[in-house]
Amino acid sequence: MNKIKTVGIIGSGVAGLSAGGLLSRKGLTVRLFEANDKIGGCCSTTNIGGYTFNDGALYLGLPGIMDHVFSKIGLDRPSLLPLRRITAPQTTILPDGTVVDFAAGLAVTIERDHCETDGTRLRRELDDMMGKWEPVLRLFVDHLLLHPFSLPRFLFEGGHHLLKLRGTVASELDRLISDDAVRSAMSGALLYTGMPPQKMPVASILGLIAMFSEGFYLPEGGMGKIPEALSQSLLTHGGKISLNSKVEGIVVRNGRVCGMEVHGQGLVEVDAIISTVSGMLTFGTLLHSEDVPTSMKRMVRKAPLSHKAVAIQLGLSNKIDARSHSNCYFPMMKDQVAFFEPENTYKINWFMHSVPTVTMPELAPENGSIIEMFPPINQHIPFDAWDEKKKESMLQSSISALSRIYNMDIAVTRVISPYEFQSRLHLYNGSVYGLSPAAGPMAQFPQKTAIHGLYQAGQTTYPGYGIGPAAMSGILAAEALLAT
User: What is the full per-residue pLDDT of the chain (484 aa) written as tens digits?
Assistant: First the structure.
C-alpha cells in the first residue's frame, strides 16, 4: 500500500463511482476518466423535451446491496437517494386473453373467462416456491455477493443448496406452479436474460424471487440519481472526475501498470488502475497484446456474450392506461422461444414495454407518459449494421404494435440500437450485459488481475442481479487494491 498513492479509474458507472468513493475516503488520490459527457454509464438518464429516459437500467432491485455500498463509502442512502417502490411490477397478457398481474409482495391475480382459478392452491404453491428459493436468494444477497467469488466459500455456505441449482427455469416452474398462465407470466418476467425458459439456468429464477421478496424501486428523479448520489463520496474526498476523456490504452512497464493514455491528455501516470469497462475491452483492446496473460486472452476469446437489444423510447403528451411498470405481451411458456426468433421484423407480435410514469409521473411533463419498449430483434445482425434506416424501421414497427393497445400522442422519440449500446455505453459488441447471464463464475474476470496494479470491476466481473452487484464489484476491486 505504501507504493500506491494515485489510482486511475476507467468509467463512471456505478462500479467506478463506488470504487472511487471508497479509495478517496481512504486517503488515496483518485482520478476517474469517463468517455462520455456525463456520469452514470448504463445507469444514467437523458432528458429530451422534458421527458426523462433511461439510458440502460430500468429499475433498482436488491436495494439492500445498495445500502451496503453506500455505507462502505460513508453515505446515507435514504437521505441522498430516496426510493419509491414499484407497487405494480408486471402485467402479462397471454394469447388466449388471460391477464396475470404481479403486485407488491406475493399478490398474484388472474383474469380470464374460460376457467376458474384455484386461488388456495396457487397461494400454497407460491408459498412453497418462496420457501424453497428465498433462502438461496438470501445466501447470495447477504453473503456471496458481498465478497469476491470463492468456490470453497460457496460450497461451505451454500453446498446444501447445490441440488436446487440443477435444471432450467422451465423445468422448475413446471414442478412448482400448476397454472399454465402463471407459469408463463413468471418465465416471461425472466426473458430479460435473453434466453427462453427451456435454456435458462434455474438460478435465473432468483430474479423472480427478488421481485416477490424485496421488490423493485425507482429513485426519486429517475435512475440517473443513483450515480449522482454515489459521486458525492468521491468528490467530497478530493477525487477528480474528467468527462469527455476516453481512455485509449493502459500502459504497462516491467509487468506493472504505470499509467493510461487518455484522449486529449496523453499519458496520465498512476500507481494503479481499476477498469470498469468489460474484461473483454480491458484485456482485448486497452492493453497491448504482449502485456496480456495467456489466460486472459483465452477468457476474452471464449467469453459467452449476452443478447443484443433495441430500446424504443416514446415521450407522449397524453396519459395512457397502463396497468403496471412492465407490460408484457408474451406467448405461453412452452412457446416463448418465439420471443427471440421474430419471423418478421416489420410486424411485432410479442414484446414487453415499461411505463415508468405509472410509478413516477414526474418523469414526464404534466399529463404526459413515457413508454420504453424492447421489441424482439434478429440476434444475427451485427451491432454495426444498425444504421439509421434499420432504426427507423424498428421504430415504426414498434409504434404500430403499441398503437394496437394505446391511443398515443407522440411528442418525442428515441431509439437506442446495439450500435449505440456499443459506441456510447461501451457494451462489448453491443451485448447488453457483456457476459451472458448463463455464464458461470469461471467466466467472470477476477477483481485482482495477473497484471500488477490492474484491477477489474463493473460489467462482466461479478455474477449478480441488477445495479447493486455492479456497484459492489467496484467496492470489491477497491478493497483488493487496498489489501495489496
Answer: 458 999 999 999 999 999 999 999 999 999 999 999 999 999 999 999 999 999 999 999 999 999 999 999 999 999 999 999 999 999 999 999 999 999 988 899 999 987 777 789 999 999 999 999 999 999 988 888 888 888 888 888 888 888 999 999 999 999 999 999 999 999 999 999 999 999 999 999 999 999 999 999 999 999 999 999 999 999 999 999 999 999 999 999 999 999 999 999 999 999 999 999 999 999 999 999 999 999 999 999 999 999 999 999 999 999 999 999 999 999 999 999 988 876 665 678 899 999 999 999 999 999 999 999 999 888 889 999 999 999 999 999 999 999 999 999 999 999 999 999 999 999 999 999 999 988 888 889 999 999 999 999 998 776 667 899 999 999 999 999 999 8
CA distance 363 to 259: 41
Please state, in angstroms and as integers, the Cα–Cα distance from residue 134 to each residue in 54, 129, 163, following that order.
Answer: 30, 8, 15
**452 vs 156: CA distance, rounded Å:** 30
Residues with Cβ within 8 Å of 159's Cβ and at least 6 positions away in sequence, in order, are none
pTM: 0.95
Cell of 294: 495467456
Q: Specify whether the CB–CB gap between 38 and 32 falls below 8 A.
A: no
Q: Provide the 10 A C-beta neighbour count for residue 388.
A: 10
> Can you give the three-state secondary structure of the chain, one letter per residue?
CCCCCEEEEECCCHHHHHHHHHHHHCCCEEEEECCCCCCCHHHCEEEECCEEEECCCCCECCHHHHHHHHHHCCCCHHHHCCEEECCCCEEEECCCCCEEEECCCCCEEEECCCCCCCHHHHHHHHHHHHHHHHHHHHHHHHCHHHCCCCHHHHHHHHHHHHHHHCCEHHHHHHHHCCCHHHHHHHHHCCHHHCCCCCCCEHHHHHHHHHHHHCCCEEECCCCCHHHHHHHHHHHHCCCEEECCCCEEEEEEECCEEEEEEECCCEEEECCEEEECCCHHHHHHHHCCHHHCCHHHHHHHHHCCECCECCEEEEEECCCCCCCCCEEEECCCHHHHHHHHCCCCCCCCCCEEEECHHHCCHHHCCCCCEEEEEECCCCCCCCHHHCCHHHHHHHHHHHHHHHHCCCCCCEEEEEEECHHHHHHCCCCHHHECCCECCCCCHHHCCCCECCCECEEECCCCCCCCCCHHHHHHHHHHHHHHHHCC
CA distances from 423 to 257, 265, 384 (A): 26, 21, 9
Could you tell me which residues are beta bridge partners of residue 413?
314
For residues 353 and 408, give the distance between their C-alpha atoms in angstroms, rounded to a whole number: 14
